[in-house]
Amino acid sequence: GSAWLSGMWRASGAQSTYDEIWCTPTGHLMTGTAQEAREGNALPYEFRALDETAEGVILRVRRLTPATADRKASEATTSYRLSWSDVGLAMFETSEIEFPQKIVYRAEKEDRIVLRSTGTIAGQAAEVRRSPDRLDPKAPAAAAGVATHSAAGGGASGARGGRRPAADAVR
Q: Which pLDDT does position 66 carry in this prediction?
């Protein structure tokens, strides 16, 4: 399941802060938000939902900009299908947009995840990688039974041995 993702996560740099918050799964649904600020300015933010459907697990992402946040004229929702999962790993893919086409969540250690978004921008390969730390230590990933992935021992870039196609990932 994806319960290991529940909680508050933050990645901070010299000029930027990225926050992602995921609620505890309820039934077949898990909701969250993501926001980033750079040099004190709010960037587009997202509402997210992991929804277990008859067709499989879908990550729905609705991106809003501060200028359109209070209007109905916001960008459309993009749906990503869970294409691969394992303990502490979830990979989502779409062909609806150029970037990101793939979103990977991976538990790196007990209180850190790696979020990797890849695709193309203007015909060129592009990648955004963030490593947010857990802000709410009352809900450590280890308590949810998360096995972490090192760069050499698996994860999104390692061999597929031991990983399985997506199934029942929300709970």
A: 78
